[in-house]
Amino acid sequence: MSDSDEVWDVIVIGAGNAAGCAAMAAKDAGAKDVVMLERAPEDEAGGNTRFTAGAMRVVYDGVEDIKKLVELSETEIETTDFGTYTQDQFFDDIFRVTQYRCDPEMAETLVTKSLETLVWMRSKGIQFVPIYGRQAFKIDGKFKFWGGLTVETRGGGPGLYDALQDSTQKNGIQTLFNTRAIELLYDGVKVGGVRVKSGGELRDMKAKCVVIAAGGFQANPEMRTRYLGPGWELAKVRGTRFNTGDAVNMELKIGAASYGNWSGGHAVGWDRNAPEFGDLAVGDQFQKHSYPSS
Ligand SMILES: Cc1cc2nc3c(=O)[nH]c(=O)nc-3n(C[C@H](O)[C@H](O)[C@H](O)COP(=O)(O)OP(=O)(O)OC[C@H]3O[C@@H](n4cnc5c(N)ncnc54)[C@H](O)[C@@H]3O)c2cc1C
Predict the structure, then answer these.
(1) What is the pLDDT of residues 252-274, one digit of tens each?
(2) In this model, does residue 6 exceed pLDDT 60?
(3) CA 239, 241, 247, 250: dihedral to nearest 10 degrees?
(4) What is the reported pTM?
(5) Does residue 241 line the site of ligand 1, with CB under 6 A?
(6) 228 near 265, Cβ under 8 Å?
(7) Quick check: 218 and 201 in contact, CB under 8 A?
(8) How far from 191 is each of 40, 256, 269, CA to CA, in Å?
(9) 13 CB near ligand 1 (under 6 Å)
(10) Confidence (pLDDT) at 281
């Protein structure tokens, strides 16, 4: 194991949407040396962010708010009834879907900051477009959106990941691919860095601050079965194969309290012939892969 004397201002574990936004926010807050650690190789990087359709739930009060996010043409404005999506609707949707098993403070932040967050993401180069393709229908000559979803990222998940990479690079934030965080460097008082495995070697990276944005445990059959229940080891994973619960395990290992709804998840009916990982639409390139070993 080689230790480096370099001390990063911020190390972000992961390279999906949470990580990219955290890294850019750290830069905004004045951090100079910020790096993202990505377990996956470059051609599979970006976690579930790369698999999302990119639909973004956001509170808005009519077309003027949508114009803060999207460059709309005159025709789009004339032929679309954008309606509204209120804070109350967003809260109701969260409560209904989670059956009230949600953290009140996090829900409050998510809802009340949703518009300003997307405006901030736009200022960082993330582009949004109206979801005419799958969330709108035409009534009396006007498009209307349904399901509380009105905008998505341009190019869906791959578009979002590419824009995040572009933007972080322009902000001087490097992504280290094939670099798996395996342990937090913890002295019993504070976290001072991350032990990583890269190119078959272990190395310690020191940091003043570590942000963990390394996804969940969807791609770990043992953890799925332990927390969601028997039979879940058989589920197909529509997303990345790299989210195997490292973030959760690293935190529990240093004594973090477990919190929240561990046995809940977002699952949909799926094709039994689907690949073990990845979406059907983009599954071909991932079909050949099995569980990652490093
Ligand atoms: C098919 C599909 C469709 C979806 N559609 C939507 C949608 O339309 N709208 C919506 O809002 N959400 C959608 N989602 C959910 C959305 O994709 C996720 O909530 C979001 O991408 C999570 O972002 P994240 O940055 O937290 O995690 P991720 O994007 O999963 O990023 C985790 C990152 O951590 C990395 N990582 C994991 N372990 C380590 C480690 N030990 N060391 C270093 N790096 C590590 C991963 O490789 C990855 O880069 C969808 C998800 C799927 C799978």
Answers:
(1) 999 999 998 899 888 888 888 88
(2) yes
(3) 160
(4) 0.93
(5) no
(6) yes
(7) no
(8) 24, 12, 40
(9) yes
(10) 59
Distance 47 CA to ligand 1 centre (A): 4
Separation CA 41–CA 90 (nearest Å)? 36
Task: Give the relative orientation of helices 104-112 and 114-123 as an angle to the nearest 10 degrees.
Answer: 60
Residues 6 or more apart whose CB falls under 8 angstroms from that of 12 comprise 19, 22, 23, 26, 34, 35, 36, 37, 210, 211, 213
CATH number of 2-48+168-287: 3.50.50.60
Mean pLDDT of the chain: 92
More confident residue, 221 or 268: 221
CA of 138 to the centre of ligand 1 (A): 32
Q: How do the domains of the chain map onto residue ranges?
A: 2-48+168-287, 55-154
Ligand 1 atom at minimum distance from 243 CA: 37
Total length of the chain: 294
pLDDT score of 282 more than 60? no
Q: What average pLDDT does this structure show over 67-91?
A: 96
Q: How far is the CA of 20 from the centre of ligand 1 (A)?
A: 11
pLDDT of residue 250 exceeding 60, the answer is yes
Helix/strand/coil for 180: strand
Residue 44 Cβ inside 6 Å of ligand 1? The answer reads: no
Task: For 190-235, give the DSSP string.
Answer: -EEEEEEEETTEEEEEEEEEEEE----STT-HHHHHHHH-TTGGG-
For residue 4, is pLDDT > 80?
no
